[in-house]
């Protein structure tokens, strides 16, 4: 339907046409979207795109749109773009037209002031209101040459003298900068394909499984020790403002020294190169205990406004309006140190990646002991899961929770919905639990469970999480949730809280990380 209008777009891109035109236009019948993409191509520019009659009218604005009413920025009208391009963020292959990287710098809806915007553009002046995250108020496009226009903002209540788009560099879609998107793109735009097929997801998992983080240096750790109760710590090129470093977050256990916030920050920095494999690319829910674990903690999801700019943020587009919108994605050693300073001591990453949140990469079994369940009984249940996984030919590993339980983590190809992984885990759990009815209850409420264990498959839901590998737990001595090899279930010294933030690094140095072998496993779930 918009073939004629998009002919120029195709012509410039050596477009190999296939039979079916895109049907996407119907999905946006309102037709009032706008987007501004920050595009680093041969020259960096901002692409202002207004949806009209089933295409995106487009202008390349080298200095970018601004709220500054004194600015008159050149805007070069370029070819109309397909609607599918409006949400695109990622890279365009080098050598192709526009090769470089693109972020969704701002977006929202627009209203034309003129009754007939197409005629207004034809006549050379378009007044319009933008309702975006960054751009708001009335703008004007005025033609100055065949393709040359000026873009300006009217002096209205949204005008801000001196406002510079470069001071607001992050994507409203992902929270990332162009540099961050270029370093780990989640998608590529193949403009030689039809618009409905042009966006190619890139396996962010591959980048994560092979990603590498350096531990803090000896000098960096010494500098942390030398700080008083608070101060600035430079770690991996980032400046961290640390506070209350000598505050006890975890009381002592078994004659050990209590654990201070400084100890936790050091642990987070040291464990980061191992732990980030389970956190990077994933939205984070954290359990914070600013007054130490003797006081009640609380769940924290929304990235605070005071958080430093270099922390990666991600917007959950399916969130309800009154729920958390912006999540933190810990993707660096300093990010983990920042979380420790924020007393976010128990970290729960989503089981899906931000690039594809509806498809988990882990299916989880949670052996949740009841008040009467002994650890020996938890081990019986864990070994039954081992037998089940062997029988099904499924790769998995157990992990102690650092409290009383054991979980089984199963890596899966991100092709299943949460409903599918949950149904699979439920079936296997019911089969396992059915062999030991004296140990397991399926009752929903704690009292009805009569102190028996629960095999909890209900955690396999979006934004429900289990504690991440190597996260501390809010208990005296700072015990840690630790991945195991299957045969460690038979170790008589195993205890669910055997390792703490003081001892787990030695364990990793000796036996490695048992989950590392799962990181590049993408398996399908066999029928049960
Ligand atoms: Mn462009």
UniProtKB/TrEMBL annotation:
Q: Where is the DNA ligase D 3'-phosphoesterase domain?
A: 37-143
Stretches the record annotates as Disordered: 158-177
Where is this chain compositionally biased, Basic and acidic residues type? 158-170
Pfam entry (one): LigD_N
What Gene3D superfamilies does the database record attribute to this sequence? DNA primase, PRIM domain
Residue span(s) of domain DNA ligase D polymerase: 260-515
Name of the protein this chain belongs to: Bifunctional non-homologous end joining protein LigD
Q: Could you tell me which species this protein originates from?
A: Saccharopolyspora spinosa
